[in-house]
Structures are given as structure tokens and as C-alpha cells.
């Protein structure tokens, strides 16, 4: 893997993580907790696990 490919992958993952975190944090707490079982206050850790594994 070249340095360019690694950088491109890292930037893409970072963008996906930020997008996912914003989407989870924007959910109404009632919907997120009751229907999805997610806590929007843990959006950062949830997004990190979803993107990076």
C-alpha cells in the first residue's frame, strides 16, 4: 500500500466517522434510546466502533 493510498483511506475513514457521529448525535433522545437502543451522548464512541471496528 502506498503512502497516498494510506492517506486517502485515513481521510475517508475520518470523514465517515465524523458524519456518523453527527447523525447519531442529531437523533432525538427518545427515538435513539427506545427504538434503536443507542445513547446519543455516546455518539463519538459508537461512530468510532462503526467505522474503525
Structure commentary:
This protein is mainly α and 53 residues long. It is 77% helix and 0% strand. The chain has helices at 3-25, 29-36, 43-52. It is elongated and about 45 Å long. The model has no long low-confidence stretch (mean pLDDT 91).
Short description:
With 53 residues, this protein is mainly alpha-helical.
Report the strand count.
0
Strand content: under 5%
How large, in whole angstroms, is the Cα Rg? Answer: 14 Å
What's the helix-strand series? HHH
Integer average pLDDT: 91
Number of helices: 3
* SSE class: mainly alpha
Which labels suit this protein?
3 helices; mainly alpha; elongated; 53 residues
Give the secondary structure arrangement, pairings included:
Elements: H1 3-25, H2 29-36, H3 43-52
Amino acid at each position: 500500500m502506498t503512502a497516498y493510498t494510506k492517506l486517502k483511506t485515513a481521510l475517508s475513514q475520518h470523514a465517515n466517522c465524523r458524519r456518523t457521529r453527527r447523525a447519531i448525535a442529531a437523533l432525538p433522545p427518545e427515538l435513539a434510546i427506545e427504538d434503536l437502543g443507542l445513547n446519543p451522548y455516546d455518539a463519538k464512541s459508537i461512530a468510532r466502533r462503526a467505522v474503525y471496528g
